[in-house]
Amino acid sequence: MSRLSTPASRTAETPLDAHAFGLLCLTVALALAMHAPYQPWWLSAALLPMLAWRWRQRRQRPGRVPAWLKLPLLALLALAVVARYGTVFGRAPGAALAIGLLVLKVLESERARDARVGVGFACFTLMAALLFGQGMAATAVVALGLLPALATLRALEPGQPSPAGLARALLPGLGMLGAALPLALLAFVFVPRLNTPLWGAPHAGEARSGLDDRMTPVGFSSLLLDDSPAMRVSFDGPPPPPEQRYFRAYVMDDYDGVGWRSRDDAGQPPEPLQAARSIGYRVSLEPSRQRVLPVLDVPLDAPPGAAMRAGRVVMARQPVDAPLDYALRSAVRYRLQPGRAKQAVRWLQLPAGFDPRTVALGRSWHQRYGSDRAAIVRAALSLFHDGGYRYTLAPAPLGRDAMDDFLFRTREGFCEHYASAFTLLMRAAGVPARVVTGYQGGYWNTMGHYLLLRQSDAHAWSEVQLPGRGWVRVDPTAAVRPQRVDLGAAAAAGGQLPWASRGWLQSLRNRWDIVNHWWNEGVIGFDALRQRGLLTRFGVREASPAWLASMLAIGCALAGALGLAWALHRRSGSEPALAALRELERRLARRGLERRHGEGPRHYLRRAARALPTQHDELNRLMENYLELRYAHDEPPAESLRRFCRAVRNFRPARVVK
Amino acid sequence: MRAALRRGRAWAERRLPALVRPRRPEPLPIELHRRRIYIVPTRFGLGFAVLLLVMLGGALNYANNAALLLTCLLGAAAAASMLAAFRTLDGLCLDSIRAGHAVAGRPLELRLDFASQRPRCAVRIDTDTGATAFAMPGGDTTVTLSLPTGTRGWLPLPRLRVWTSWPLGLFRAWSWLHPGQAVLVWPEAESAGPPPPGSDDAGPPRLHQGEDVAALRAYRHGDPIRHAAWKASARHQGLLVKDFERPDSRLDWHLDWYRVSLPEHEARIARLARWLGQAQAQGRRYSLRLPGEHIDAGSGHAHYVRCMNALARLP
Predict the structure, then answer these.
(1) How far apart are CA A479 and CA A380, in angstroms?
(2) pTM, full prediction
(3) Is residue B120 domain-resident?
(4) pLDDT confidence of A243, banded at 50, 70, 90?
(5) How many domains does the structure of chain B reveal?
(6) Is A475 a catalytic residue?
(7) Does the model's ipTM exceed the 0.90 cut?
(8) Are B82 and B57 contained in the same domain?
């Protein structure tokens, strides 16, 4: 027997004990850590020590932080947020304000009620951290961040055995979340998604590194070092061979001496295409903040919600802010605009006053080969191949006449330099040419049967117009470094990449990518459209929100029933003899022979035997059996126990004789 | 506001007998089961629901499925906590209640014996005046509760509200325990008054009046030197003195209801209670005569309890 009794007055007034307060601080610290990557460093650097100080201070001498300290801190927080973001509304400033207020709440937490409010608020800020990045790892870490929150709430309940270690405090929360997971998944699948946001279009302000409608050497080299996934492509049928894995994003016509730029000419129709062989595929694109949808060279059509532009570039109506899936077909053997182009002159244009030596070289080719454009292209490629050019991701800086410097002085660079110089040479030689940027190569994931393209697979190549064949893709980088096309930028660059991109680690990361792919496909990309198509397989064409809601209600009811079954389940006492006696009691009670309060089994069954004279002997035998089973042995023999239970089951009380 | 609430509750109890059924006094043991456990969200639970709705709205608006998943997880955990709260009370059994002794006006100690097959946490019991919280490691647990008393006599046990908001404080599962048992409250003794009649040898009896040596004990400062047991002391380290048996020459007190010269009923009881207390403190033998009851002379705690109980039971 134990005796544990603690006086407790009203719940809300209960002061916080040190254990619960420590857990609260841990919860808040985790919420801060989740937001740290998305907030200015000084905010985290100010809030975390403040939290640590408060934790120490309360351990030594419980008491609120006085108002003369708290109010200036509040003003300071608001000022800092406004100074940094210019407003307190929006995602980033809102989050900064929220974590600041959270720490201030801890400063004044003295009662159980304060701690509860703090925990609720911490849960909210944890969720807000997911608005900045919803990768699988981030989500898992945030979900684990709920553990201290749940542990705090548990610790706030009075009347528990004395607190154990941290792990023992956190573990029950894990069990709770595990038990809650099925219902959570059910709700996740069936909660009707919104087609359009209810308020403020969730524009994600910050620019992402990625392809862009302007190509400059500096921008491109940073891209080649970023190996976050850009897109994943799964093909209907076998994947195309590596030399055909060119994904077109932008076509750039204008060169200003510094970089290439794509012309915004929405009115221009796409070039006519004669496809000899085409391939169907499906792309899941990571958010790019751009409207362009990279497609395998050369697309037959634009997917729904997007339009095809000049250069057969596919543009979506909205910038891609969330993972996007689209399916389409592309030609892999084709003739693109084999006839005469109307404005061939725009693909011959050269910037005035730039790169005189390059232009002179091109003109000399024109004089030598005349209108044999294929010979001109071969001349340029053999120049790159044999002219002592080197592929590097860290080329020497170039001067004002960048292409002259590159071609005749430094002779080192990456795809951007080669494509740019090649196109310039072609134009000078009278061959219509343009630069195409996009992705090339990628990693074929054999387990997931998809092609992963990272930002580092960004590539630039050229297209020249040959008579009778139309636009033909020429990749001058391949002339210098064929591995670039076969293996990707990392292999081509040799040892110039960060350690994380090397060898076995890279292959490990490529394999791990499949998990991210599943996460993106299954969780992040589960939008209104996919939700409606969810039950197509089961004959439901279009799942309307009302239908989804009713499914959700049914599912919740089922889950509730299961939960209730668990909650109501009682282990039928460990002693079968006792359970059998209870059964006997129930049967006798139906005949009006209820066991009286405090009546022993012997007396009760005797009384029953008197009331049922026809079954007198049977009842007496049962009673004796029972007493023997219960009290004669420590462990009743299984055989007689079975016999007793069977006898009870077969016993049917007769009508009582009054 | 509060008065209106109370009136509303009284009305509900009158009109809805199902609500009242578990509140009537019942014989022990009382086992809590699903028909008598109620669950309501706490104020924090309601706030938390609003928070979840806000989170849901945010996640849906920003089309952020990770946040939605987290919100669903939290919501499902909250729903599971409701079942956990129910399970904390379900199957809890109040086996017996043992009451201590207390005079009117002083708090009475109640010991509630609870039985449970599995461990439980944070079970709380509220009465009108106090509250307690306890954990049950499994098996039997005794909880001590103090009950305020007013006047002497049988005090029916109040209705106890047993509740819990374990594990997250979002839901409150509660039930009524109304044991049909009464405890006896002793009368309060008057603060001062005359000694009982017939106790002429007033004043404390002198010690060492007896002749028989009862025991030997160590010398204490102030003992008369003529009591020293010299022979015995020689065989010991310290000085021993003879302890003489207390004289039994003091007279038994015969406390009699009819010989208390007070007009008031309760004042008589208070005086008798004081005499009983004095007699008990002095270790006397005493008897008590009350209207309709006579308790023979005796001594010791059991005797005292018997007499006080008889006094408390007087009409």
Answers:
(1) 10
(2) 0.67
(3) yes
(4) confident
(5) 3
(6) yes
(7) no
(8) yes
